[in-house]
Specification:
Blueprint lengths: L2 H14 L2 H22 L5 H17 L1 H13 L4 E5 L2 H14 L4 E4 L3 H5 L2 H7 L3 E4 L2 H8 L16 H12 L7 H18 L2 E4 L3 E3 L4 E6 L3 H7 L3 E7 L3 E2 L5 H13 L6 E5 L13 E7 L3 H6 L14 H5 L3 H4 L10 H12 L1 H4 L1 H4 L6 H5 L6 H14 L5 H14 L2 H6 L2 H11 L1 H4 L12 H11 L1
Parallel strand pairs: 1-10, 2-3, 2-4, 4-7, 5-8, 7-10
Antiparallel strand pairs: 5-6, 6-9
Helix pairs in contact: 2-12, 16-20
Length: 459
Amino acid sequence: MNKTAAEFIAKSTIKAADLEHRRKINFNIGKYNAAVPNGKKQFNNLLNTNQQAKNIKWNAIEHLDKYLLEFEEKITARGVKVIWAENANQALEAIGNICKEKNCKTVVKSKSMVTEEIHLNAFLEKKGIESVETDLGEYIQQLDNEPPYHIVTPAMHKSKEDVAKLFAEKLGVPNGLTPEELTQVARQTLRDKYVQAEVGITGANFVLADIGGIAITENEGNARLSCSMPKTHIVIAGIEKVLPSVNDLHLFWPLLSTYGTGQKVTVYNTIVTGAKQNGEVDGPEEMYVILLDNGRTNLLENTKVREALYCIRCGACLNACPVYKNIGGHTYATTYSGPIGKVITPYMQGMNEFKHLSYASSLCGNCTEVCPVKINIHELLIENRRESVLQSYSSIAERIAWKAWKKASLNRKMMNKGTGKLKNWVVNKLIKGWSKHRGDLNFSEKTFNEMWQAFRTDL
C-alpha cells in the first residue's frame, strides 16, 4: 500500500467516527436535498433534459480540438491573449510572468477549482504577491488555511459558530456574530482589495466556442468585481469546459444551479468576451485566457472513461455519496473529491498513487442517478479498478489470491471439497481485509450443488 492510500485510510477511519462532523455535513447537505427537487420542477421532461445535456457535452468533447480552436480564433480577434498550458507548472509560469509584467502586488480571485488544482495561492505567496479569495466560502477557508471542502460549498463542514470563532481569531471582531454580521465584515474587508488589486483571476464555468466567450456563474457578485475592476483579467479554465454555442447556456445554466443548490438559476450569470473595447468605460484593459490540460487528455485518450469530462462541477454526486457524507472532502487529499473526483484524479495525478479512491465506494449508483449530464460514474469507478489491475498496480498477494479464487470457483469438485469451516477460515482469517470492518461470513457445510444432488438422489 502506498503512502497516499495509507493516509486516506487513516484519515477516513478517524473522520467516519466523528459524529459532530457528520452532523454538520448532513445538516448542510440536507438543505440542498430539500431544495433540489423543487428546482427540478422547472423542467417539463427532466430525463430528456439530462440526455440533451449529455449529447451536447458528447459533441463538445468528441470535437474538442475544433471547438477550442474556434474559441481561440473568436476571442483573440477582440484582443484577448490565449495561452495553452499542458500542465500546472506552465499555467503558473504564465500567471507569474503576467503578474511580474504588471508589477502586481495584490490579486483578487473568484472561486475556481482549477486555481486550487494548480495551487495558485501558494505560488503567488512565494512570489510575494497577496492573493485574496473573494468568494465568502473560499475566504473562510483561506483564513483557516484549509483547501475547499466541497466543489460548490467550500466551507460546508463549518457551522456558523465555527465561522464566528474564526473571524474573531483572524480579523479581531467580536465572537458570536450572526451570519449577516459576518458577511458584512467580509464585505468591508474585501471591497478595499478590489480597488487595490492590479490583477483579477477567475475560472470559467463554461467556455463558449461560437462567440469566443466565457460564462461565469455565481451568487455573490464577487466574480464580476474580480474580472472588471482590476486592470488585468486572467481566466484559467480546463479544456473540458467548452460548449459549442452560447445557445447551450439556456440548458446548462439552470441545470448547474438546480443540481448544485436547488436554485432555478444562480443570482449572477455573466458572459465575458474580452477586455474593455473602444468606446466602453468599464472593464479591464487587458484579458488573458489560460486553457489548461494537466492530465485531461489522459482521460480523453481513454474512450471508456472519456465521459467523465462531461462533468459541469455541480457537486450533486458529492451530496448523494454515502462515503463522502461520512469521511468528508478533505480526507481525499485531492482537489476534486467525491465520486467524480475518484474517477478523474487517477488520470490527472497518477493511477498508482490514487487508484485507492476508486475502491472507496459502495457502488450504490446514487452518484450516477443524480448526475445532470448522465455520467455513469459508478461504472467508471469499476473501469478504474480494471485499469489499475491492467497496469500492474495491484499487489502480488492480491493477484495470487484472485487467481486462486478463480481457479477454485471454476472447479465444481474443488468448490464441493472445501468444507464450510475451511471456507470460513479462508475468508475470515486468511483474507484479513474482509473481516476487519465486517462481521464474519459463515458458509454452509454443504454447497447448494451437493444439497441438490442429494435431493435428486432421494427422489
